[in-house]
Predict the 3D structure of the following.
Amino acid sequence: MRVEVVITSDFICPWCLVGERRLRKAIATLPSEITVSLAFRPFELNPDMPPEGRDRESYRVAKFGLARSQAMDAQMTELGRAEGISFAYDKITRTPSTFAAHRLMWLAEREGEPEKLADLLFTAYFSKAEDIGDPAVLARLAAEAGIASNRAAAFLAVEEGVKDVRALELEAYRAGISGVPDFRIGGFEIVGAQAPAILADALRRAAGIAASAA
């Protein structure tokens, strides 16, 4: 039985990365007759971010204050260790715009390997401190996810997919999604980076509903 999971997230959202890792742990516990397909939908935590991004420290201090910003990074770093995620906050210098990354994901769902690209984008930003708003970085990551780097570079240089991604963002807003990660699992919605057991239960229930409707 096949279950589709629609993941609405942003690639600079640490809880989105944690949620995706927990989802994969949940999927690993499922019986073999349940197969899961993932679809990725865009959400921008900072929709007003300029394309070139901003200096992370100054941006975070202005948004949260220095003490809170440091506390949030420390909390996520500690949580990441428990999840097997290395958060390199001490090396991240820029907060990027993620719109180009979401456009690239839109392209990957048509021409590449979207699940692999999602993992590459999260890892590039959080663990390697790369600027995932930089077209050159995105083109290199695209090549690792089944899209030729020259195709990705040419795609990002024009308006292809822009209206489509904006429409998907509007669709999420109209669906009532105001925070991420958001998982639509069959007919169920799971908000936040919930425990693998909760996600696995939703997957099993969705498979049961799908099976009864088949």
Remarks:
- The two ends are 9 Å apart (CA to CA).
